Amino acid sequence: MNVIVIACNGLHLGFLGPYGNAWIETPNLDRLASEGVVFDHHYPENLTTLPTRRSWWTGRYGFPDPDQGWTPLRPDEPILPDLLYDRGVRSALISDVPMLRQAGHGFGRGFDEVVWIRGQGYDPYIRADDPRASGVSIEDEPGLRLPPEDDPDRELWRLRWEQYLRNRAVLRLNSEENAGSGRAVRAAIDWLERSPRDASPFVLWLDLFSPHGPWDPPPADRDRYVSVEPDDFEAGEEGDLVEEDGEEQADDLFVEDVPVLIDVPPGPVGDELSEEELFRLRRTYAGAVTALDRQIGLLLDALGRLGRLDDTLVVFTSDQGEPLGEHGFVRRYRPWLYEELVHSPLIVRLPGGELGGRRHQAIVQTVDLLPTILSALGAGESPADLDRPPMHGRDLLELIRGRATKFRDFACMGMDVEEFALRTHYWHLIVPIEADPDDPPRRVELYRKPEDRWEQNDVAERHPDLIEHLELVLRRFVAAVERDDFSITLPLRELALFPPQA
């Protein structure tokens, strides 16, 4: 079979219909979920954008190693297209993610075809002297508010936003046809239309920048949810984002009058934006998700028209979530590994929709995608495999087809080698590793799952023995990654697998 991977950037799980959201319109992802297998427990191993793609394309853990983070790929580091080279499989990368295109990182290497869609976000594409962008000014865009004069990052954001406004003006980024990474999706459809049916199998990796900020969808999407009174914006005592005794009712009465912010620097709520602006920003983000869903629908329609839904494995996922105030800050302000950042979607549709409509509860991670792709292609072993390091991930088709019920009892992850986390079905442990001197003091945190979905109630003080054991499991796993030897690991005991008795 062929393989198409649709990878998004910064997609909040709580804003998707297949993962329980009842008020944001995602009909095309709902359709994909009904025809595919939805994994309810999917986590990255190393955040954020570039580290996740490294684990996708190598199938290996790297979060304890600073050289495996936001760093260029090594020339000798085997990645997905390298493993397809001598297997008779065509490979293509189509992406509008500006970070992947940055010179020297090497994330476009090895593919048979690469199509870069330039100009998303702060991509330095449209020059300041381009006459097509003459007259563009931050002062004329009410959705962008510069930090205060004494903020050391003020000039950085001025340059970024001026670049975005030039890109938007020339490329019409917030138009109906281009929003939600529409240009990249059209490029993918064009590639599929030019791909002969009788050619060798292919892997198409479609890497979409959406819904990463700036969140600037067409006006119809930007304002689509402004008058909606969703019940999952604020965290209640048990961690669900629910409305609390009318506390938000007053805010909903005037949120339509709150100015739209299409981008904000990472930072605490109250500094970068007010509570009212946060409520409005969440609605704008919801519109951006719907715009993305619409583009996914165009791609699925094209696959159906071309007959590719019958011979192609389709994977939909995201590199990370998006903090939107659940813990008092927006965007990736610090490497704090909470649910809204580390729980990411994963939907796998088999050709013909076989076994569609199922949900799987196994804990899976980004390292599992590469072995799944190779298994789907049925390409077997390659002579080059003898010289490459072993993959740490497992074939998700084993779970989907019932040949296995689980791969692991826990998921381990990290970000910037400053914070590690361990996630089981019942617990989420967060362990600070190296504190930033500008950060407030941090300590180990523990949250009960699944009832404390958005991790609002730290129960670390109530379970010191459990924390000791889980942290030991985590640190043993880190040691196994560092020596690339998982033959000796410390299993979770029953205390870690099951919640405490009431």
From TrEMBL:
One of its GO terms (molecular function) is arylsulfatase activity. InterPro entries: Alkaline_phosphatase_core_sf, Sulfatase, Sulfatase_N. Belongs to the sulfatase family. Residues 2-378 form the Sulfatase N-terminal domain. It comes from the Bacteria. This is Sulfatase. CDD domains: sulfatase_like (cd16148). It holds the Pfam family Sulfatase. SUPFAM superfamilies: Alkaline phosphatase-like (SSF53649).
